[in-house]
Structures are given as structure tokens and as C-alpha cells.
Amino acid sequence: MPGTTLPPFPDDVRTHPLLIIDYDLIKAGDTEEVNRLWKAATTLGFWYLKNHGVDQEVSDMFDMGAETMALPLEERMKFEQGDNGQTFGYKKLGAQATDASGKFVDNVEFINISKDDALAYPQVVHITYPSTVNARMENTIAPFVRKALDVTYVILKIFDDKLGLPEGTLESLNAMEDLSGCEARCTRSLPRQGKAVAETPSLAPHTDFGTLSFLHNRLGGLQVMPPGHDEWSYIRNSPFPVMQFAILQMRCLFSAEAFCNPTFTELCT
């Protein structure tokens, strides 16, 4: 996003610290770093990851998201997700409730690209996409998906060992060639001020479906409720992406999320 100036992270909100895990070290099998990864994954379930090598692909994904969100709403709505349960395509602002009463609705819009469509392009596996997505399918989205998978497969191999599973078990449940609900996502949330920020979340509280989430946080906005807490805390934005461990779900999801012009890029496997 050339020329974009991002505001500093606020110093008057509750935050929660995360461990910083070195991908180079865990890939090399460093015992101490592997143990730190497992601690992070099995306590809070979130951690920062450095030296992952996906920086350029992530930057390109943010650009793709910004280009797509700049299209007229009428054009984006041609590729709207619909109500059939699939998540591929465009999600407009306010399409989801953020509380049980349904009084409040979300403040985010998504463009979700199926992993299967990205890797098979120009063949259509699930749906078609806006021109801004198609223009970057081969040189931005597919490389992001492949590199992000490389990172997650290294981590899943470690989790196989820690869980006492045969090597390759978790990777086989998240195989690149299998058709699935995996997706690359870019998300935008429009700025809000005053009471709306404190009282209504941009997106409803949730656990990502999938095994791992790979979230690149440029501006801030991700919140977590740590074990033993009853209030949400922000995760401070960082040059390192945030990873979330949700091993029990074992589905494959890719998500490049961007909030506020955009600010998040997330991969979930």
C-alpha cells in the first residue's frame, strides 16, 4: 500500500503480551525454541512468529485487498458470498450480527479467495472473483498460499511430535491438493469513533475454524480473552505476524485479513 501512513497503536487500552517465536530456529529443530512454541500454543494459543520469509507475499496481498475494496460496491456485490453457507467471495458491511440479540452488526467487509481456486487458476473450482483478484491470482495470491502452507507444515510437523502422532498426520489433514474450505482473505474495517468503538466490536467474538491462523497485524484490532480472564485484551501490532493454534478443529483455512485500509493479514490452516 504505497503512501499509506498508519497511526500509532494507542497507549490507553488493555493489551496482552505474546511470546515471539523464531521460525528459523524451529525449522532447524532447536529444542528450546520448539518448547517455547509448544508452551505458547497450549497456554494462550497465540504467539508472534518472526523470520517466516513471507513478507513480500503478505505486502502484495495487502495491495490486492486495497485494489479490490476500491472497486465500486456494485461491482463487489456481483461476487457476494450469498446465503448458502460458503465463505468464498465478497462479504459486505453489516452482513453478520455481533451479539446474540442481533441488535448490532459487523463493521467489516471481506474478499475471500478459495485456496483451490487460487492454485487451479485459470480453472474455476468453486466461484469466480473480481478483476482485481484475477489480475493477482498467479503472481500474488497463489504464492502467498504456497509459502504460508510451507510455514504451517513445519509447525504441524512439530505438533505431530508433541501430540504423539505419526509424522505427517496433521499435514495430511490439511493437504494442499485436497479440495476444502481453505481461503485467502483480505478484510477492511472502516474507522469508528466514540462509543461505537468501545461498545460494539467490528466482528463477533469467534474461534477461527481451522488448525492454524497466520495473522499479519499492521494497525491493531485483534483482541483475545486469555484463560482465567473475563475481559478482552488487545494484541499490540508488531512487525511479526500473530499465529493462533486451534488444533482440535483440523480444517484448512487461509485468510489474509486486512482491517482499516487494510491492517491484518491472516493465514489459517
From TrEMBL:
Domain named Non-haem dioxygenase N-terminal: residues: 20-122
Cross-referenced Gene3D superfamilies: B-lactam Antibiotic, Isopenicillin N Synthase, Chain
Keyword field: Iron, Metal-binding, Oxidoreductase
Sample GO molecular function, one term: metal ion binding
Top-level lineage group: Eukaryota
Residue ranges the record marks as coiled coil: none
PANTHER family: FI07970P-RELATED (PTHR10209:SF881), OXIDOREDUCTASE, 2OG-FE II OXYGENASE FAMILY PROTEIN (PTHR10209)
Name of the protein: Non-haem dioxygenase N-terminal domain-containing protein
Organism in which the protein naturally occurs: Rhizopogon vesiculosus
